[in-house]
Structure formats: C-alpha cells, structure tokens
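Q: What does the assembled structure look like for these inputs?
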Amino acid sequence: MTGFRSSVVYQIYPKSFYDSNGDGVGDLRGIIEKIPYIASLGVDHVWFNPFFPSPGRDNGYDISDYCAIDPAMGTMDDFEELVEALGAHGIGVMLDMVLNHTSTEHEWFRKALAGDERYQRYYYLRDPKPDGSLPTNWVSKFGGPAWEPFGDTGKYYLHLFDRTQADLDWHNPDVREEVAKVVNFWRSKGVRGFRFDVINLIGKPEALLDAPEGTDDRAMYTDGPDVHTYLQWLSEQSFGQDADSITVGEMSSTSIQACIGYSNPANHELSMVFNFHHLKVDYEDGQKWTLKDFDLAALKRLLGEWALGMQEGGGWNALFWNNHDQPRALDRFGDTGQYRYESATMLASAIHLLRGTPFVYMGEEIGMSDPAYTSIDDYVDVEARNAYRALVEGGTDPARAFAVVHSKARDNARTPMQWNAEVPGAGFTTGTPWLRPTNQGTVNVEREEAQGRILPYYRRLIALRQELPVISRGAYAPYLLEHEDVLAYTREHDDSCLMVLCSFRGHDTKVPVPEAFASARILIGNYDGNDRIRSSDELPPVADRLEVGTICLRPYEAIALLA
Ligand code: TEU
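A:
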C-alpha cells in the first residue's frame, strides 16, 4: 500500500455492487466474489457506503447500530473475510462513519425518547420559541423544517437531514467518547481508512440561532467554531494513532480556508477533504432542483481555485466527479452518445492527473450513465421524492418536475453495477434488482473487458499515479484559464513537467502549447492509440501534432504531455 498521495480510491455502493444470494440487493459476499475485478483496477483502497444496521430511510445513512453489519448485507465474519481478502491484494478498506446523526431507531435515541436524561443530552432538544414557533428557522437538506416534535415532551429535536436522522450534540463529551469508541471498534478489525459523512456539521455553536432573514441558514451551523477541535481530539483518540491511516471528510458547503484547516497535516485532523463546489456549476442560482447546462468557465475557475488554494495552504483534495449522491458526470459534462468513450476518458484524465487523491465511483470506469427512467415511481430516494412533491406543489408543471428529478436524482448513481447484458439483473442479481438498470445491453463490464476502451484507460491512469511522482507530488499551476473549451494545467516535480489538456466540447478547438513542451512526449491520450501506451513503451513525441506552437484538439480529446 502506498501513502494517500499516490493512492487511488474505488467507491462501492454495497447495495448495488453484486448480489450473491439473488434477493435483488447487493451484499458483502457479493463484494468478496468480485475482488479479482476490484484488484484488476489497481486501486489502493475501497470506500464502502454504510452497511450497518439501519431502517434504510436514507439508504444506510440512518444508522441504528454503528458496530454491527446489516443482516441484509451479511455478517461480521463476512466483513472480516472481506478485509482480509482485500488486504491480500494490498487494498485497504475505508468505512463510512456517519457521526453527525443517528437513526431515530438507534438505542440512544430510543432511550432518550423513553425519558433517559443521559441520552437526551446526546441530541439537540430545544423548546419552541415563546410564540410557539420552531426553535430556529433552519430547513432540512431533504426538504421541510429541520425540527420535529420530540415525542409528547413539547420539545423538538434537530435533524439537518431526514426526520429519522437526529443530529448528535458533539458538545457533550459522552457523545465524543461514544464516537471515538465506534472508530476504534473498526480499527480493532484492521480498518485503517475512514470517510466521515458531513463532518463539517458537527461543530454547531452552543446556542442555535435563527438565520437572519434573507440569509442562508447553512452559515449558522456549517464549519462551526468547534469542528477543528473535535477532529483533532478524534484523531488523537483513534485513527491518528495509525501510521497508515487514510481519512477523508465530506465537507458540505465549505470554504478553501476551512478545508486547509481540516487537511493540512500540521493540524492533525484528516488526510483530505471532499468539497462539492465544482458539482454545482449546473445549478440555477445555486439550487439543485433546477435545469441548466453546465458552465465550463465556472467549472474551470473552481477546479483551479481549489487546486491552487489547497496547494498554497498545504491542504489536500479528494478528487472526484461521481459518488452515490451525484447524477453521473458523463450525463452532466460529457456525451453519452457519439463521444461516450472520448468524454468518459477525458473526464477521467482531468481528475486523475490533478493534485489530490482521485476517487472512482463504481461503474464510472466502464462509462455508466443515468438510467432512462420514464416515471416518477422509478425513483426511490427520499430526497428525489420530496423534491418532486415540492416542485409540483409549488406550481411546476409535472413534466418539467419529472425532467428535473430525472437529471438530478441520487438514484441516477445508485443503479446496480452492470456486469453483463442480462435483463433485468445486468449480471448484478439473478433476482429482481432493487433499482432497475436500463442500458446494460451496451454498457457493461463484460463488454468493456472484451472490446472496450474506457476500462483500460482507467487502469492506465490509476497505474500512472503510482509510477510518476510528478502526478502524485507535482506542483500545480493553472493554464489557459480564459480558454472557452479546454481545461488545462501543468504539474511540475524535480525535472519533470506535465501539461494536461482536456477539451469539454464536441467540436475541434485550438490550444497554444508553450515552447517548453515542443519536444515533449505523449504520456497518455484518448486519440490515435495513445490510450494503449504501456509504461515500457517509448512515448510518442507530440511534435507531429503541433502546428506553429498550437495543437488542435478533437471532440473531447484529452492529452497529457511529459517534458
Ligand atoms: O451527504 C451530504 C449532503 O450534504 C447531501 O445533502 C448531498 O449533498 C445531497 O445528497 C446531494 O443532493 C451525505 C451522504 O453522502 C448522503 O448520502 C446522505 O444522505 C447524507 O450525508 C446524510 O447522511
């Protein structure tokens, strides 16, 4: 295993990866069966979305027991076997720690509700305002108010997500002890990787206050004053004791400054952070449930600002286009038709050669795209269903509301991994899949292995990070920030210089190449067979492509030059 800077992480949504017993839902034994495939990618760690006991209101992010395995997913023995079997390939396990909130089915919340004051102090319970209105004007990220009556006590409990996800009060030292115990439980099973769900929400101020009128309520509880102290404490009590620990914090609506704090090694908090700013460039006025073409200028600006800002502050980014909450990037920024291969590999190049640690979300490596659902009933996610209802109730035409959900729903990412062309299971299950795949006829692992070009390209990109310090360590500098079609940057380390050019357009476009790269060689590219270069090959010169210092990029072309 290598350090996190030269690592690549593969993300698996266990419910949708591989079903070993035909019940239509993925499971741990299924993942064990597919380890040869995972290992063939060359990844260093696998992040698993939660597979702990949960009522499943938010697909496992509503946890009712942190230290057990959801029986629908397998047993603790299966888990231990999984850790060992991945470890035999040098692959580490990264678990999802959802420590900002528990399910209301968790023993702590149940005891609190039954009147146990010790456990009542685990949550944010507040009285209504004197006028009888809710304790604050905050809204839930899944729609509606963030407060729900706490039994018949007259008080309310805070839930920033679904009403069955009650926020834990980290001010209480008992809560902090409990969460450290959870992390240490999994460490004792050999786990060294942790992804912390919405961890920048744990530092809410002691007094919860209304957001001033006309302002964003997220500012009232995000990146709060105590997050850094809590993370330092948690690190010291748990994962910080492992030399080979790798941690990533999911940072909701955050800032570069805060993220430098979370990930600069001098602060002893986390290895790296996810931020989502670059994935909001197709939101109208910052609102998710809208329809808008992506803004490439904004995307370039944000990727550049974060790469540079984090570098200057000594922080470290997790790099990603896809995860279980995002519609497929191919549908948003690429072309799922004529240029599927070109745009999928271009997007991969843009991320994998940047400064940071790349994450690949299952199916991305074979070019999976959003399902072609035709009815709102095809969508199962609580967020999508709430959003549809709210749009229609707010007067949006149902056809348009459906189009919005179709392009934004988290279900888009959660359809089963497409192993082969079988209908209905796509080789994921012999039963009825819990969420229906729609294009396994053309997009599947079997076909990619036999004749595809996306999967080999990912394997090559993943290997390159371990081979070349200029990729894992090189200094980043933006290039051609004003170019209308192309994302470009350079990386520099010792005597090596890398230039990465990625066209986001379906037409030809010209890019100037500085003199220093005139005699450079092509490290990887998605045209002219440059996707088939192997490390032992002599790299082809770029000179043939240059015309008076300019290169003409073809539709969705990506090319990396090494000087
Ligand atoms: O998501 C955090 C988050 O802020 C979500 O609102 C996310 O931005 C949203 O789903 C996109 O519309 C994390 C998990 O990744 C998500 O699956 C959980 O539902 C959420 O936390 C609550 O635990």
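The mean pLDDT is 97.
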